[in-house]
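Entry:
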Amino acid sequence: MYSNTADRGTITWQSPSNIALVKYWGKQGNQLPCNPSLSMTLNASYTTTSFSYVKRKSGREAALQFLFAGARNESFEKRITAYLNSLLIDYPFLAAYDLTIDSANTFPHSSGIASSAASFSALALCVVSLKQMIEGKQGESSFFREASQLARLGSGSACRSVYGGYSVWGSVDDVPGYSNEYAVPLISEIHPVFRSFYDTILIVSAEKKKVGSSTGHVLMEQHPFARQRFRQANVHTTELIGVLKAGDLDRYIEIVENEALTLHSLMMSSTPGFILMKKETVEIIEKIREFRKTENVPVAFTLDAGPNVHVLYPASHRKEVMKFIKDALEERCTEGHWIDDSLGTGPKQLKG
């Protein structure tokens, strides 16, 4: 393997997905959110992207080959090419290389984990690393902020995956320091109970969603409850920041579950409306609520824009929650499939 230079080399980043606790639903302008969101970065669910570049004589557009798990993927290649070409005004050097991008996930598609968040954050980190190779190093905070901003242009939620722990994306009413342009790692000190948190993802359905998130965002433009929803997200974001600092598990559960059900209520009340939950989704939610009440265990659920359920709980209750999942919830998963994950520390740069 040749060493990295400005003429040729390979840059490799491993970047995780994340699960929004306060949901981003509705966008404006160039991938800007209509409301703030707050997410938990995952640990075991990540994308590894190798970005190989070789200097060429000339070029006006990005020239690349995209491989997914080692195999050519033309549909992704078109999307990634369009994305890189959209960056050329600010990153003209991208047209000066022949690029080979090889990406692979530790988790399957349609598993309730945002693959676009992991993949575009990894790709953005590779682009900013190449820029640094050409123009010289920059400070760590500005490096990750730039990567977050670039990731957002590929997939909104990807901007949050640039950071570990908990992060906020979007301007928050009356709380300075947050931006629509990029995510910010949570400023507040996190209580110990929220530093060791698990997310077990129950795969109710592995089928591709009938309605994509992009369509859902567009439907928010004319949604009768849009304005109220955006206000609610502001309130929940502000409050959840305080909850994570104080260690208030009861209020955490209330906010996170309300956010999940609000997201699906917005989908159902759109025009046209759509339902992504399955019968098993509702059964799992009811089982979690019953278990929490009878066993006094602080376990919560959240949902992405799909039928699969994220089971959230502190490490101190791992034993009883895992038993509960195996005894009462596993049978409601497709082929008994679930993914065990937890709070992660964020992206890692690997050797090429």
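The chain has a mean pLDDT of 94.
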